[in-house]
Write a structure and sequence with these properties.
- This protein has about 625 residues and is mainly alpha-helical.
- It has 31 helices and no strands.
- Helix 17 runs antiparallel to helix 18, helix 17 runs parallel beside helix 19 and helix 30 runs antiparallel to helix 31.
């Protein structure tokens, strides 16, 4: 079977935190109604929502500020029975609100779910698990003020959550322009594992903002892993420059860039430092070294161009920007470990310190990677068009997510938006063509594939392949064969290409033996792919190897039970070996699946002509196998 997917899955991995939010947590559940629980929120201090220009990444999770108002009352243990059940002012029960919150979270409505859980916590503050879930929901929804207010401190709560709360508390205090309080919080209760990296990175910038330079310039702990040690020293070099201790900063950067494995990570910031010091030639050496080592990204190339044109060097990060960048670095490390939920929290914190579209894009991507796709799409929708490249990236990412959810029309709109701001971007044009092909708008896809952005001398095999698939769908087999052959010459061992061209040759009967051999190679390379196994079985069918075809086609149906074409093929194979009743079952099943008009007509003709069935009526014209028997 030919199989083209225009839906690349960029983010896999499930979010452990998201799953924990959906788990039942009300103690004694529904069968044990609540005692007289206070209907007021526990005492807390208000935290203003703060947004200031500039920003990058997001750090760890933190705890809320210690209330300076009266202490929370002692919480009574949960009694054996709730009586009466806690109700809010609208007569909603705590349990009903909890269920509504859980359902909202599992469907990806993070903000709604967080709001419901916050209301449950207000009704049942004696339940630590409710508090924990309300806290984590608020974090993922981006309500950092609420998260800081209710951050759990109970000894029975997981240290992962408690340490996250500490991080949130300190960063939010700094976000409210109170670096001294933030610094004092981190001194009194340092952020521990697993958020210790983020805590240490950000505390240096907070300490500097508070004027505590001994802590700001402290060396990283001896037990830090090697990479985190280098990252912390990079922050220290930036702060040495802030302190105008230029010789020490230069020495730190030199040592960092000399590192055998990680030195490439520091060439850009060292080059920028050298530019600010007026040492353009030395900065160029750093940028050229990155180019030679093939580690140069867009920013390195911009730095190189800046030096050559003698343009103004980039400004030194201020304390907020530095803290945000530190958090984003910590987020990158968490994401690399597939801890997407914590990466999201760090990015949210960074965005609150120094807002930027780039950080907002990363928030959306990370939520999607963590499996919280609706919340990820909502975050991506907030990326502005100030930077066309960032805006287009957000639209493409949203389109991929929508297409995975079978929302093709919406995905197409997002890709069209991306193309409108990046009309010369070949990658966007390719994604748009792919989506059009997925929606069977083949002629429109070909217009793009044959246009100047994609039909180039150095076009990749992907473009040839997609163009071949479009031609094949339009029954332009000669052109399809030429494009698929061109793609295969560039990727001779690619199982998808081997399968697609091999199936074309087998199905059209032009080069059956050669096509069958290619499909066999594809199956050997990817035996778990049901579409390729279908091609293998169909090739055997076309060669008269009916018993072998049945075995492979049954295996393909097991792997792709809802695929109409594979079920149709199995019906043909059953018929060929005399298993007419089973053939009829498969053909009837095809009509219950998503099937195009051409195949539907072919299958209905088989049922009518071979089995005497009327596929449009409730009863057959004869028994399932009567006409054939």
């Amino acid at each position: 079977m030919r199989f083209v997917s225009s839906r690349p899955v960029l983010f896999l991995a499930a979010s452990a935190l998201a799953l924990s939010l959906a788990a039942p947590v009300l103690a004694q559940a529904a069968r044990e109604p609540a005692p007289d629980a206070p209907s007021q929120d526990a005492p807390s201090q208000d935290i203003e929502t703060h947004t200031e220009p500039n920003g990058d990444p997001v750090p760890h999770i933190i705890i809320a500020d210690e209330p300076e108002t009266p202490e929370e009352p002692k919480i009574t243990p949960i009694p054996a029975e709730w009586s009466p059940i806690p109700l809010d002012v609208h007569r909603n029960s705590a349990f009903g609100l909890y269920l509504a919150g859980r359902n909202a979270l599992t469907s990806g409505e993070s903000a709604t779910g967080a709001d419901y859980l916050a209301r449950v916590f207000a009704l049942t503050p004696e339940q630590p698990r409710v508090r924990e879930q309300a806290f984590t929901a608020a974090l993922l929804a981006g309500d950092l003020n609420e998260a800081g207010r209710i951050a759990p401190t109970d000894p029975e709560v997981s240290p992962v959550i408690v340490q996250a709360g500490r991080l949130v508390q300190a960063v939010q205090a700094y976000a409210r322009n109170d670096p001294r309080r933030a610094n004092a919080l981190l001194i009194a209760a340092p952020v521990g594992e697993p958020h210790d990296r983020a805590g240490f990175y950000v505390q240096a910038w907070i300490a500097a903002a508070a004027g505590d330079w001994d802590r700001a310039l402290a060396m990283p702990p001896a037990d830090f892993d090697p990479v985190s040690n280098l990252v912390a020293r990079g922050n220290r070099a930036r702060l040495l420059e802030q302190r105008r201790r230029y010789a020490e900063a230069d020495a730190e950067w030199r040592d960092l860039t000399s590192h055998a494995l990680a030195g490439a990570l520091f060439r850009l910031p060292y080059g920028e430092f050298l530019e600010r010091r007026g040492h353009r030639d030395e900065a160029l050496v750093q940028y050229d070294a990155a180019v030679t080592a093939r580690t140069a990204d867009r920013r390195v190339m911009e730095g190189r161009e800046r030096v050559l044109s003698k343009a103004r060097p980039p400004a030194l990060l201020n304390y907020r920007e530095g803290a945000a960048q530190a958090l984003r670095t910590a987020a990158d490390q968490m994401i690399a470990q597939r801890a997407h939920e914590f990466g999201t929290v760090y990015l949210r914190l960074a965005q609150n310190l120094a807002p930027s579209d780039n950080t907002q894009l990363l928030i959306g991507q990370t939520l999607i990677q963590g499996g919280i796709e609706p919340a990820g799409r909502a975050a991506l929708a907030e990326v502005s068009a100030a930077s066309p490249a960032t805006y287009a990236a957000a639209r493409v990412q949203m389109a991929i997510s929508l297409a995975k959810a079978d929302r093709d029309d919406e995905a197409l709109i997002e890709l069209q938006r991306a193309a409108s701001v990046r009309p010369e971007e070949a990658a966007v044009a390719y994604m748009l063509a792919s989506q059009l092909l997925q929606m069977q708008r083949h002629e429109e896809a070909l217009e793009l594939l044959n246009g100047p952005l994609l039909n180039t001398e150095d076009q990749g095999f992907e473009v040839h392949f997609l163009r071949g698939a479009a031609y094949e769908s339009l029954d332009r087999d000669t052109e399809a064969e030429a494009e698929l052959w061109a793609a295969l010459q560039m990727q001779p061992d690619n199982p998808t290409l081997l399968n697609y061209l091999g199936y074309l040759w087998v199905d059209t009967g032009t080069r059956v033996e050669e096509g069958a051999a290619m499909i066999a190679r594809a199956h050997a390379a990817d035996p778990k792919d049901g579409n390729i196994q279908d091609s293998l079985g169909w090739a055997q069918f076309r060669q008269g190897q009916y018993e072998a075809a049945v075995v492979n086609l049954e295996g393909a149906v097991d792997k792709e039970p809802a695929n109409a074409e594979i079920n149709d093929h199995l019906g043909d194979a059953y018929w060929a070996v005399g298993r007419q009743r089973e053939a009829g079952f498969q053909w009837n099943r095809v009509l219950t699946l998503e099937v195009d008009d051409k195949r539907r007509a072919e299958v209905e003709a088989k049922l009518r002509d071979r089995l005497g069935q009327d596929p449009t009526g409730d009863k057959g014209l004869g028994s399932a196998g009567g006409a054939a028997d």
